[in-house]
Design brief:
Stress up-regulated Nod 19 protein, 11-stranded mixed sheet, 31% strand, 5-stranded antiparallel sheet, 2 domains, mainly beta, 559 residues, globular, single chain
Length: 559
């Protein structure tokens, strides 16, 4: 049957996108003025594309416009339309050739590379990226590693990194549907020309400054609290990356992301699923096929990639395609910026100070621990808390310029003390009170942060700190965490009189895209052009994924 794209596409678009002018039309109007109005006609009060063929011919001469539109849409919805109509296009030296519309449709429907929308305001640059997709059904778990993710290039200072889970339409997903156990971002140097390194010498993990080197090497990372936790680095400080002097010859800097998400739609016990209770996952082995240790009741060994938590009998739910949407803010590096060191402290660290004055550098972080319930005991409600502490010696000191804790449901707060008992930073959780994303009742949706005045909070070289993590014991909890992130800078401040100070980000600024903008992707053929053109003109990098646990050595392999 011969298809008439002027009819089948335009009518569908008019019906589904009543405010098309707010997306593609505005974009094209901004770039090309009144000429762009020729792209559309009015139908039932709506703005509609004229013909598929005409659009393709017009857009083939305006690749810049195509990529602009692509940045707004991210080409996530092409799959929805690949069976709606049939067209065939081929790319040849960035030009399009149109074939008769009665042949099959060739659409780039599985693109997962993100394309950033970059902004630059007074030297502060920002970009919004999407991770490769991951799919979840009710009760299922994704614990994926995405290699070589999109990230700003060059010698820069990172000023903030924010992330959240979104669906295909860019809608934030609430924690009571998809629980974000954690996300972490790590840096590595990979030998050029080797996409799947087999030897450790071809891949070098660039971890933070400590203290644990057995699973907490991340540069950035949070969990359920990600939407309402400040991550900005105040001036004149920054997280230095991309320094060409530090990158070994023959290597390039790359970034990879680990996302651990649990779909709790229809779950028999939502809290039990998020705490990875082994009985709810019917788990007896870890992801390596080894038997769980005796007494292990819950944690990441029971909710690894591909496992499933119990859902209510008869519950039906669709499979979802999800993404991590992450926003990076940075400035170009210059001599006015003071670099910071990143430390991730863990209350489960087994480090013990030796008999001599020398520092024992052997830190082993268990990362997770359990909290026993005081129900049925003589403990009063006021005393029904779990207070865990650990003493840790800092190899080098400096000024604390940022601090934040990471806890799970049941957490009351965490405090970092100096050797003399002074409080360096206290971080308290915020629990949600509603149903919308960012305010989910019963979940930790934010952690308070510390921003001391420069030079007001100092750590001495070799100083022994005390980390305290407190949980409520009114019910038991499994697989909880007690981490603490601090950024530490040397005592030396820049003395460059010409230095430019960028205004700090006072709160997380997320890019929210109106539904009408997301709707532009329903231009099946037009956006297919955008996707393939953008893809063709960019690198042919492939992002892979694999399972990972934070307590094992990270491996980077392209799948």
């Amino acid at each position: 049957m011969r298809i008439q794209p002027e009819l089948c596409l335009c009518r569908g678009v008019c019906a589904d996108i009543p405010y098309l002018e707010n997306s593609l039309f505005v974009t094209s109007l901004t770039m090309y003025g009144a000429r762009s109005q020729k792209l559309f006609h009015r139908s039932s009060g709506h703005l509609c594309p004229r013909t598929v063929k005409w659009i393709i011919q017009y857009f083939s001469l305006h690749l810049e416009l195509l990529e602009k539109v692509f940045y707004y849409s991210n080409a996530l919805w092409i799959q929805r339309w690949q069976s709606s109509f049939k067209v065939k296009m081929v790319i040849e030296e960035a030009h399009w050739v149109w074939f008769n519309s009665d042949v099959d449709l060739l659409v780039a429907s599985t693109l997962t590379n993100s394309h950033a929308r970059e902004n630059n305001e007074n030297g502060m640059k920002s970009a919004v990226y999407l991770s490769p997709k991951f799919e979840l059904k009710p009760g299922s778990v994704a614990n994926r590693v995405f290699n070589n993710i999109d990230f700003p290039k060059g010698h820069i200072a990172i000023k903030s990194f924010n992330a959240e889970v979104v669906d295909e339409a860019g809608n934030p997903i609430p924690l009571h549907e998809t629980y974000l156990h954690h996300w972490i971002v790590l840096r590595n140097y990979q030998r050029k020309g080797i996409e799947s390194p087999k030897n450790k010498s071809d891949n070098i993990i660039v971890s933070n400054s400590g203290l644990c080197k057995n699973g907490l090497e991340q540069i950035f990372g949070l969990g359920s609290e990600t939407r309402r936790t400040d991550t900005h680095v105040p001036d004149p400080y920054g997280i230095e990356v991309g320094n060409p002097i530090e990158i070994p010859q023959g290597f390039e800097e790359r970034w990879f992301m680990n996302v651990h998400a649990i779909d709790t739609r229809g779950a028999e016990d939502k809290l039990g699923c998020t705490e990875c209770r082994c009985d709810l996952y019917n788990a007896t082995e870890d992801e390596n096929g080894e038997a769980l240790r005796k007494g292990y009741i819950g944690g990441m060994d029971c909710c690894h990639d591909g496992t499933k938590c119990k859902v209510r009998e008869g519950f039906e739910g669709v499979k979802r395609t999800l993404f991590m949407r992450y926003t990076v803010k940075w400035v170009d590096w210059d001599s006015s910026i003071v670099p910071v060191k990143i430390y991730v402290l863990d209350v489960t660290d087994t480090w013990k100070k030796g008999d001599s004055n020398a520092l024992d550098t052997k830190h082993h972080c268990l990362i997770e621990y359990d909290v026993e319930s005081c129900a049925g005991t003589s403990v009063s409600n006021e005393g029904c808390i779990d207070n865990r502490t650990v003493s840790l010696s800092m190899p080098t000191g400096g000024n604390v310029i940022y601090g934040v804790a990471h806890q799970h449901t049941g957490g009351i707060g965490s405090t970092l003390y100096g050797e003399d008992g002074r409080i360096l930073c206290s971080s308290i959780p915020t629990y949600g009170e509603g149903k919308e994303a960012g305010n989910e009742e019963g979940y930790i949706v934010g952690m308070s942060t510390c921003y001391p005045n420069p030079g007001s909070v100092k750590i001495s070289d070799g100083e022994t700190l005390v980390l305290e993590s407190i949980y409520n014991r009114s019910q038991s909890h499994s697989g909880v965490m007690g981490l603490f992130y601090i950024l530490v800078a040397d005592d030396i401040l820049p003395n460059n009189p010409n230095s430019v100070v960028h205004a700090p980000v006072e709160k997380q600024e997320k890019m929210t895209v109106p539904n009408s903008v997301w709707g532009v992707t329903l231009f099946g053929v037009a956006i297919a052009i955008v996707a393939v053109v953008a893809y063709h003109r960019r690198s042919k990098r492939k992002n892979g994924y694999q399972s990972i646990t934070m307590s094992t050595q990270h491996r980077i392999e392209s799948s």
